[in-house]
Amino acid sequence: EPVTIPCGHSYCMECIRGYWRKCELKAEYSCPQCRRAFSPRPALYKNTILAEIVEKVKRTSIQDA
C-alpha cells in the first residue's frame, strides 16, 4: 500500500515502517530520499492516486499473462 510522508515522498507502507524501525532507538525519523527529519514519528497517509496506478498496472499485467 503506497503511503506519503510529510515531505511529499511516497513509499510502500511496509518499506517505510521497516526503515523507521531502525530509527526507533534514536527517536529521530527521516525520509530515505531527501533526509528531512521528523520528530515525533509522523503519521502515514495512503497515496490514493499511486494506489490506483498500482492496481491498474497489476490488472494489466494479469491480462497480459
TrEMBL record:
Keywords: Metal-binding, Zinc, Zinc-finger
Highest rank taxon of the organism: Eukaryota
GO molecular function: zinc ion binding
Domain RING-type, residue spans: 6-35
InterPro entries found in the cross-reference section: E3_ubiq-ligase_TRIM/RNF, Znf_RING, Znf_RING/FYVE/PHD, Znf_RING_CS
Protein name: RING-type domain-containing protein
Species annotation: Cirrhinus mrigala (Mrigala)
